Known about the structure:
Blueprint: H1 6-24, H2 29-48, H3 57-65, E1 68-76, H4 88-107, H5 114-117, E2 135-139, E3 151-161, H6 162-169, E4 186-191, E5 206-212, E6 223-226, E7 229-232, H7 238-248, E8 255-259, E9 262-263, E10 266-267, E11 280-285, E12 292-300, E13 312-316, E14 319-328, E15 345-347, H8 349-352
Antiparallel strand pairs: 1-3, 1-4, 2-3, 5-14, 5-15, 6-7, 8-14, 9-10, 11-12, 12-13
Helix pairs in contact: 1-2, 2-6
Amino acid sequence: MSNNEPGDERANTYLIDLLDEAARAGADTVELKRISEGLKIGLLKSGCGSGRLLKDAAWESALSAGPKMAHYLCFSLPSRILIQPKFIVPLREQFRAAATNHFCKRCGDVGPSFALLGHAKDRPADAVGDHQHAFYLPMAQRGNSRGSLSDLHIWCPYGFTQAEIEILLRVNRLDWGSGRYPVRPILTALSREAPSDAPFATGRTSSKVWRSASPFVPPRYFYRRQRGKVTLKEKDRPERQLIECLRAAGVATGGLVWRQGEKNGAVSRLESMPPLPSWDVVRAPGSDEGASKDAVAIAVHRNGSDMGRKHERRVGLFFEVEFDDPVTLRFPAFGHSCHFGLGLFVPAPQIHGQRPTS
């Protein structure tokens, strides 16, 4: 039997609304954290009482079947060291592993949560379309010239129940650097919808030009090795795979795709290109003749890699897409490990003199 009380649920709903309104009104960080802490205490009190970890059939049933309380959360990630962007996937996996640990303690290994984990077997009938479960997006704060990962944005098109929010709020420590440099997530935002100025695409911002904020990793391997020579698979070239991902997301507008650093066949470093020293630079095939362009080697997610398995490393590239007309992207990221922060695209109006519209 669940120990939730109607008064607790009303109070938590009020705090979510209050936090949402405060963020929209431009409240300062101290005020947002104060409301967030009240929400966290309220959710944990109504969800687990005195920390009881026994399986509760009513609570488990409400885990993913209850009303959707929010679609967006943001955590700041304070740490004594800077976390470089090349650790996007390991950082995200640590957070999910911690959430999964609390999830299993609360409702056992069989408890379903499509929103949190995205398992196809748990997909509810009303989750229509692809990529409806949570995107976990570690990002730098606006104005952070170093590009270090300082925020974790979590956006779920399907939405989170109160019980699922409770699971996320229980993550209070990530053991970075083998535990020597703990990261302690602090909730800074929670709302029913992503804010209009969210630093990622949610289907509300329109722009003609979209640019990689993290490497796009093609879903399929795009090169072959023969007798020590690395050559490109023409039908699987990264540009084509990116176009396939955009088409699958419903983008029908034509446009141009190129790797950042090359345009019109000429190689030229763009000043606003992501700082490559923050990544592990490699050389990737650029044509069937074996020409190479700058790319990065990046850890990607595979089943079990957030539970201690060694990460697979794949080749990722930074792209820019210029459409014929302004385009609204329904999802923030594309390609391999897109729910783990890779393949993130953001509007790039500063180069072409346009302003994105919301």
